[in-house]
């Protein structure tokens, strides 16, 4: 199954609204919006501006591409778990992008193999992070990157979403693939959207019936319900 439609790589097509992307990644919508558009902030010397962390595919649209979704997945831990300031993240990203010489380095396999060390080292210098702090960030980033599948060219092709960053070793039950179901989260190896299953559960069908209908184990079904219910709370 190819990612190209004509001459266009569908991974770089504006597909996800900010609301949907925030829900799929369980990131606050306002937070994701600041990563996409930057944000003004007051200082003693006047108002300053954080540059965006993610470059959208269409300047006339606020929608994200699948590549942007992967970038936000990686940025989530840097901002939410390690509280690194936006301007410091932007500086570190510029450094990594310059080293690789490619756009969107967070969505490339080089970031997993080489970029994490570059990024963590750069952030550490910018914020005077302790060695222990840098190691903690490095470990969490590596866990997140393990939830990404890469193609032969080293580009992200599938994302296995998480509810909580701290549980990066959770089973891979759901996948986001831009080639399947318009990039919505689906159950692995089935193509069945998670929201279809949760709709049936909300309509009153019990877990045993759903597991039998779809051929799921109870663990698979529980993971799907847990994920989709979490998305609903974040909406």
TrEMBL record:
It comes from the Bacteria. Pfam families: DUF433, HTH_66. Gene3D superfamilies: Winged helix-like DNA-binding domain superfamily/Winged helix DNA-binding domain. Residues 16-93 form the Putative antitoxin VapB45-like DNA-binding HTH domain. InterPro entries: DUF433 (IPR007367), Homeodomain-like_sf (IPR009057), VapB45-like_HTH (IPR048708), WH-like_DNA-bd_sf (IPR036388). This is DUF433 domain-containing protein. It comes from Leptothoe spongobia TAU-MAC 1115.
């Amino acid at each position: 199954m190819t990612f190209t439609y004509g001459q266009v790589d569908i991974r770089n097509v504006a597909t996800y609204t900010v609301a949907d992307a925030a829900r799929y990644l369980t990131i606050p919508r306002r937070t994701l919006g600041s990563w996409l558009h930057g944000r003004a902030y007051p200082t003693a010397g006047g108002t300053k501006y954080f540059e965006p962390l993610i470059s959208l595919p269409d300047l006339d649209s606020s929608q994200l591409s699948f590549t942007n979704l992967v970038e936000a997945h990686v940025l989530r831990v840097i901002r939410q778990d390690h509280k690194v300031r936006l301007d410091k993240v932007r500086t570190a990203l510029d450094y990594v992008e310059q080293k690789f010489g490619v756009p969107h380095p967070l969505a490339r396999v080089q970031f997993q193999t080489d970029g994490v060390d570059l990024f963590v080292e750069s952030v550490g210098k910018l914020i005077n992070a302790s060695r222990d702090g840098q190691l903690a960030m490095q470990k969490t980033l590596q866990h997140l990157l393990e939830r990404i599948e890469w193609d032969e060219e080293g580009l992200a092709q599938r994302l296995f979403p998480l509810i909580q960053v701290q549980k990066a070793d959770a089973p891979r039950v759901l996948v986001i693939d831009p080639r399947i179901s318009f990039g919505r989260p689906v159950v692995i190896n089935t193509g069945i959207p998670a929201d279809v299953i949760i709709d049936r559960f909300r309509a009153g069908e019990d877990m045993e019936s759903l597991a039998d209908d779809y051929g799921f184990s109870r663990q698979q079904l529980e993971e799907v319900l847990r994920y989709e219910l979490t998305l609903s709370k974040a909406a």
